[in-house]
Amino acid sequence: MTHVRNAAMALVALLLVVAGVWASWASAQHVLLGKGREHGTLTVTACGEDACSGPYVPGDPGAERRTLSIGRSVAAGPGMTIPVVVKPGTDESVRAGWGGGLHAWLPLGGALLLAAPLVGGGLRLPRTAWSLAGLGGGLLVATFFAL
């Protein structure tokens, strides 16, 4: 019975971490694999409940200028100019640089924090659990200071 319980706990913990990576990759791929993607700066002019928008100035002088949107959580507020990477085929952008990269991996940080008690209590691996919690918490704190 112990093996079944351990397998179930390991499966749930693994599912949490995989879900965190999956959720993070949607934004992280644009920041981490930014080579060949459109880069520039976005000047935030207006913010709604979920997103902010403003004029986009491309890094390539020949590219067109247009209005883009970005998630409110990574835009500091009206008047701020932030470096962005444009999602291909859309008018959406993600924050570039360290702040954007860390912000993209926030779901993984939360998943690591959620998996830590399962690993520590369910699998009885306290050192591994503290490592997971430390990595997840470190990611959250680093993102807070980077943005």
Sheet with most strands: 5 strands, mixed, barrel
Shape: elongated
Give the low-confidence spans. none
Distance between the ends: 47 Å
Pattern of helices and strands: HEEEEEEHHH
On the 0 to 100 scale, the average pLDDT is 91
Strand content: 15-25%
**Lateral strand order in the biggest sheet:** 1-3-4-6-5
How many helices? The count is 4
Would you tell me the structural class of the helices and strands? alpha+beta
What value does the Rg take, in angstroms?
19 Å
Number of strands: 6
What percent of the residues sit in helical stretches (DSSP H or I)?
40-55%
How would you describe this structure to a colleague?
- With 147 residues, the chain is α+β, with helices and mostly antiparallel strands.
- It is built from four helices and six strands.
- The radius of gyration is 19 Å and the shape is elongated.
- The mean pLDDT is 91.
Element layout with pairings:
Blueprint: H1 2-32, E1 39-43, E2 46-47, E3 51-58, E4 66-71, E5 81-86, E6 92-95, H2 97-104, H3 106-122, H4 126-146
Parallel strand pairs: 4-6
Antiparallel strand pairs: 1-3, 1-5, 2-3, 3-4, 5-6
Q: Summarize this, please?
A:
The protein contains 4 helices and 6 strands, in the order αββββββααα. It has helices spanning 2-32, 97-104, 106-122, 126-146, and strands spanning 39-43, 46-47, 51-58, 66-71, 81-86, 92-95.
